[in-house]
Write a structure and sequence with these properties.
26% strand, 7-stranded mixed β-sheet, alpha+beta, 10 helices, 5-stranded antiparallel β-sheet, 2 domains, Yope Regulator, Chain: A
Length: 337
């Protein structure tokens, strides 16, 4: 019996590929395909907003948006062992930029600095997240070197859940409806984890929506499970929705540009969408909906399947469209009606 020979992994010195942090590593990391690798490692979909972002007299390496929440993510990197200077910079830049997620990348983390990030994750509430990652380069034989990000420190969601429960002790308990919605999203997250799908759930919360990633700041996919039916305007029977949300300052312009493609989009997905553009809000949504009764838990798996199918459909249809909109399209595009 013949066997195929296997290659041997060889670790490559970072300095053989990146001579300097500011001149080589930061520009490399800021490229779309490489920031995506980092995003996969930490479970976020990142969009680069700026490199060498000024914070008073200092400059932060990379500033990103988490496209599922539209919140700031600060990235600071070094090609050596972690040091106190960079730790101080992280906190200074994070405060100056109002970042809620901070990512520290280094060739090697000391035990003291790993412990410092763990401590920050423990003492801050769930709005703030600190990640520590070691970057490595590996190759097999004469192949190109491949980057690998290893998480050294990350938020401990279980600890935070326990801490949050303790903080809420003595306060009013969640209503029955909110408890049902949280259980619905817990089940949805477990369902998505059990199947092959590009849809990645976020933290289950006691609310009628779950924000998901679409690929550009100011936009997001949203899964909705509500006791209220928007179409029928009644609480007698609820609904679930798979929707594209457009928000922030360019929401109306994004909506108008997509609305101009309405016929093409609906032919592509073979369904009629609901296009909602309220005059009183700088936010728009485009969605598919289905009647649902959240109190009938025997039907939840059917609801999860429907949401997964429709969210994938919207993701495949809108993801590249919103990512390809450029500023000139926004300035010169049609106006939303």
């Amino acid at each position: 019996m013949t066997t195929n020979s296997l290659g041997r992994l060889e670790k490559v010195d970072l300095r053989n590929f990146w001579s300097s942090e500011a001149g080589d590593f930061t520009p490399w990391l800021a490229q779309d395909e490489n920031i995506s690798l980092l995003g996969e490692a930490v479970g976020l979909e990142l969009e680069v907003e700026a490199q060498e972002k000024s914070v008073g007299p200092f400059r932060a390496d990379i500033l990103c948006k988490d496209t599922s929440t539209d919140q700031w993510v600060l990235i600071e990197n070094q090609l050596e062992r972690t040091d106190h200077v960079h730790l101080g910079q992280l906190l200074t830049y994070g405060a100056g930029l109002n970042a809620v997620t901070i990512v520290w990348i280094a060739a090697k983390f000391t035990e003291e600095h790993r412990a410092a990030l763990d401590w920050l994750n423990e003492i801050t509430d769930e709005r703030f997240n600190f990640f520590g990652l070691e970057v490595e380069l590996w190759r097999i034989g004469d192949s190109n070197a491949a980057p690998k990000f290893n998480i050294i420190s990350k938020p401990n969601e279980w600890t935070r859940s326990v801490s949050g429960a303790a903080k809420n002790a003595g306060q009013a308990e969640l209503s029955e409806g909110k408890q049902t919605q949280r259980q619905f999203w817990i089940g949805f997250k477990e369902y998505l984890s059990s199947i092959e799908t590009p849809i990645s759930a976020t933290k289950p919360l006691p609310q009628h929506w779950m924000n998901l990633q679409l690929g550009r700041s100011g936009t997001k996919l949203t899964a909705v499970a509500s006791f209220y039916n928007n179409q029928l305007q009644t609480y007698d029977i609820g609904e679930i929705r798979a929707q594209v949300d457009l928000f922030d300052k360019d929401a109306k312009s994004f909506y108008a540009l997509l609305l101009a493609q309405k016929d093409e989009i609906e032919q592509e997905i073979h369904e009629n969408l609901t296009w909602h553009n309220p005059e009183s809000a700088n936010a728009c949504r485009i969605y598919l909906s289905m009647q649902a009764n959240l109190n009938e838990q025997n039907n939840w798996t059917d609801y999860y399947n429907w949401l997964n199918v429709k969210l994938k459909l919207l993701r495949n249809t809108f993801r590249e469209r919103v990512r390809q909109i450029d500023p000139s399209d926004i300035d010169n595009g049609p106006q939303a009606n």
